[in-house]
Amino acid sequence: MTILLARLRLIGDVVFTTPVIRALRRRFPPARLVYLVEPAAAPVVLHNPCLDEVITVPHTRGWQRLHDDVRLARTLRSRGFDIAIDLHGGPRSAWLTWASRAPVRVGYDIPGRQWMYTRVVHRPRELRPRHSVENQWDLLAAVDRSLAPPPDPEIDRVEMPVDPAAVISIAERLRQWDVDAAARVIVLHVSAGNPFRRWPESSFAELACDLAAGGADRRLLVTSGPSDHEAALRVVTEARRRSGSGAARIVDAEGLTLAELRALLDRAALFVGGDSGPLHIAATSDVPVVGLYGPTLPARSAPWRPSRLATVSVDVGVLPCRPCEQRVCVPGDFRCLTGIGPATVRDAAERLLEMPR
Q1: CA angle 342-263-52, nearest 5°?
Q2: What is the DSSP letter of 57?
Q3: Domains 2-147 and 164-354 share a fold
Q4: 92, exposed or middle or buried, with CB in 10 Å at 0-12, 13-18, 19+?
């Protein structure tokens, strides 16, 4: 048996599919499992021990995408997949799932796309307080009824195995940043691909300054996505200005790959960041996590991992506009993010730093 899993687009969403991968391997030990993913999120699954192959879909547009997809469709069809599961539901992934011509094709009942599947699973349109891993898991019951029981993070956590080459490269980076083996590393991820999930730069700067002041052995590593390095640099500059003699403890950790970030998290004492891909990468490690949630709900995207691992989700509480579709801020002031005070996040971070590991 050969099974195709398709999950295009975002890093965090690919992380949320990893419990499904493990469940399929457990249910079908001899099966060949193939994962279809875009380049940005490919590192999440490249070293997954439950997968036999990862196919990377070119992230192109216009006529080039049409050309690439037709060529990929021919490849998928030639592979003779028995089952194809669309874990995404977008137009492209639905079409590629259909184009595989697998006898069993599973996907969500999204209007205009149901015909591409042989088995359809209902997905409510409203933003329910239900975790994304559970939503993905619904598709498994359509493959095999024995997979219907709900997922358990104690058994099937999200995972991203560490790339051995990244362990070597991150050790070299830490040496260059003058972070010695005795230092307590705190990772602050200050960007998000979605502007609706970005905590204010001034709040991050205040938090970095406060945490750096908590001990001479601390090193604050400020990370960001490639397009947000200028924002991260502003955070670092302001935090250093406020920190005075502690400024050297705040490091501009720019340029990390996903694989390097994952390796760094095994070395870290704490991760703090918004609801974006790096937060979910952190969830695949054992590092204590403080997650910041603005327009999204922790119930939908908090770290899916064993309860023994320290995790705190911080949000502003109940607002009439929260959660939202993240297309327009109705109040216009992003109060779901600006309402989260640096002192609240600092206190949560300090509690986790005080816990034994």
Answers
A1: 125
A2: P
A3: yes
A4: middle
Closest CA to 15 of 161, 179, 158: 158
Record the tokens describing residue 19, joined without a space. 């419990």
- With contact defined as beta carbons under 8 Å apart, do 298 and 322 qualify? no
User: For 347-356, what is each residue's pLDDT tens digit?
Assistant: 999 999 998 8
Report the pLDDT value the prediction gives residue 227, as an integer from 0 to 100: 77
Q: Rounded to an integer, what distance in angstroms lies between the CA atom of residue 64 and that of residue 68?
A: 6
Phi–psi pair at 193, nearest 5 degrees: -60, -25
Q: What architecture does CATH give domain 164-354?
A: 3-Layer(aba) Sandwich (3.40)
Percent residues over pLDDT 70 in the chain: 100
Give per-residue pLDDT as tens, 158-190.
999 999 999 999 999 999 999 999 999 999 999
| Domain spans, the chain | 2-147, 164-354
| Buried b or exposed e, range 95-133, using 16+ CB within 10 angstroms | ebbbbbebeebbbbebeebeebbeebbeeeeeeeeebbb
* Residue 123, pLDDT score: 85
Q: Tell me what pLDDT residue 338 has.
A: 94
Range name among 52-56, 191-195, 232-236, 291-295 with the lowest pLDDT average = 191-195
DSSP state of 246: G
Query: Homologous superfamily of 2-147 in CATH?
Result: Glycogen Phosphorylase B; (3.40.50.2000)
> Which residues make Cβ contacts (< 8 Å) with residue 316, sequence separation at least 6?
294, 322, 335, 336, 337, 339, 340
Which of 53-67, 311-325, 338-352 is predicted with the least confidence, judged by mean pLDDT?
Answer: 53-67
What is the amino acid identity at position 150? P
Tokens representing residue 89 in the block: 């539901």
